[in-house]
């Protein structure tokens, strides 16, 4: 095949043409990521929506509306590289937006929990394509010298999703109904489709590669089964239940078989040969540990505000916002720096801020000051996140050839998805077991269940000996202060359990420093415009 095609010429500054393309990608990414977090707020509402308040669905059942979306997301990501080469990024991106929007409308029309779960899968199939495709489109449009600044733009939805999700979800449910958390995607999707049709340049597909069906039969089911096993850990309360070990092991064996097999075909589903690039390998390892620690820790903060401090979902979302504000301040700076200096000189400083914030969060209890402690700590952690995530991705993508970008983006997105699932599962189990093992918290819950409906003080006194921790607190309280005193003591105990759980997140983030210090500290030559090993010319943007 001729290699006469010249690589595109890229201006040094971010120009209007690139910003026009970035706008399309950011809208799509916001839709996908926002939907992961916005549904979390609706879960209590969904427990009674289809069955009535007298017969609520188990939490583990409605949690499938989140799990099904995540599994579909992870399953379709490996197809992105092949599909982008086969059909072209513009057509595939518009198909993904259309699938996601259609899935959203169907979710809003669901009249049973099983129907909602099914439509969430459809939504996830579209959403899973949006992020890696978006990274591919922007990287090809920007070129290597502007990659850091462009990744900073792509980082906006990654921040806005976790921050705005609970706020928007809480507001829509409070003022309207759960249907609107899905219907809000209809106007967004239509805007994204029209904008994509106008703004995205047509690209030349490379339909030379055959589809790796054998790899698909191992990779996608393996990933889905493994993540299903991992996501069952919080519900089971242990890493060693039959459900977790059964699904997790089968999934892991399929993934191992895929890894062994993937070096045989010329065009594998997931190109693990890219790991021969040292910079990509180091960045991927750093991303894996960072995503597990940070996204696992991110789950704890709004949960702390709601469970320990009694805040509403909307208020909890607003209290987490300072983290996003901090990240928005440093992300464009880190993006600009990543184009000028090696990321190995940027990422460790961001990680140190996050590590400091995580260790500070280990000291929280049930009455820690918001403005005097928690909000400044979250702001500092946000500053660290803005200086960390996008430079890691920039480092990974920067040394790939033009034709490898779609497959490199796919690798990074799978890494982040798997790591986030593992991190959330670890933090959930540590937190759940911590609350279960705390004598006061577990006895207070038992006391509440045992005395439900009781009005006779003598009858309540008769139950107290079974719960000595509760009895000890109530012994020094008057009848009018008893309930408030018990609630205060329980919230203090729960707060300390949350603080202890942050130790796990803090230690995991600290471990991220090891691979981060191996990231390039000198400028390395970019191969972005080179042909790949097969002599395939770069995919030109017209």
Automatic annotation (TrEMBL):
<feature type="transmembrane region" description="Helical">
    <location>
        <begin position="213"/>
        <end position="233"/>
    </location>
</feature>
<feature type="transmembrane region" description="Helical">
    <location>
        <begin position="345"/>
        <end position="364"/>
    </location>
</feature>
<dbReference type="InterPro" id="IPR020846">
    <property type="entry name" value="MFS_dom"/>
</dbReference>
<comment type="similarity">
    <text>Belongs to the major facilitator superfamily. EmrB family.</text>
</comment>
<dbReference type="InterPro" id="IPR011701">
    <property type="entry name" value="MFS"/>
</dbReference>
<feature type="domain" description="Major facilitator superfamily (MFS) profile">
    <location>
        <begin position="21"/>
        <end position="524"/>
    </location>
</feature>
<dbReference type="InterPro" id="IPR004638">
    <property type="entry name" value="EmrB-like"/>
</dbReference>
<dbReference type="GO" id="GO:0022857">
    <property type="term" value="F:transmembrane transporter activity"/>
</dbReference>
<dbReference type="Pfam" id="PF07690">
    <property type="entry name" value="MFS_1"/>
</dbReference>
<feature type="transmembrane region" description="Helical">
    <location>
        <begin position="411"/>
        <end position="431"/>
    </location>
</feature>
<feature type="transmembrane region" description="Helical">
    <location>
        <begin position="92"/>
        <end position="111"/>
    </location>
</feature>
<keyword id="KW-0813">Transport</keyword>
<feature type="transmembrane region" description="Helical">
    <location>
        <begin position="239"/>
        <end position="261"/>
    </location>
</feature>
<feature type="transmembrane region" description="Helical">
    <location>
        <begin position="21"/>
        <end position="42"/>
    </location>
</feature>
<dbReference type="InterPro" id="IPR036259">
    <property type="entry name" value="MFS_trans_sf"/>
</dbReference>
<feature type="transmembrane region" description="Helical">
    <location>
        <begin position="179"/>
        <end position="201"/>
    </location>
</feature>
<feature type="transmembrane region" description="Helical">
    <location>
        <begin position="317"/>
        <end position="338"/>
    </location>
</feature>
<feature type="transmembrane region" description="Helical">
    <location>
        <begin position="282"/>
        <end position="305"/>
    </location>
</feature>
<feature type="transmembrane region" description="Helical">
    <location>
        <begin position="370"/>
        <end position="390"/>
    </location>
</feature>
<feature type="transmembrane region" description="Helical">
    <location>
        <begin position="150"/>
        <end position="173"/>
    </location>
</feature>
<keyword id="KW-1133">Transmembrane helix</keyword>
<keyword id="KW-0812">Transmembrane</keyword>
<dbReference type="GO" id="GO:0005886">
    <property type="term" value="C:plasma membrane"/>
</dbReference>
<keyword id="KW-0472">Membrane</keyword>
<protein>
    <submittedName>
        <fullName>EmrB/QacA subfamily drug resistance transporter</fullName>
    </submittedName>
</protein>
<keyword id="KW-1003">Cell membrane</keyword>
<feature type="transmembrane region" description="Helical">
    <location>
        <begin position="62"/>
        <end position="80"/>
    </location>
</feature>
<feature type="transmembrane region" description="Helical">
    <location>
        <begin position="497"/>
        <end position="518"/>
    </location>
</feature>
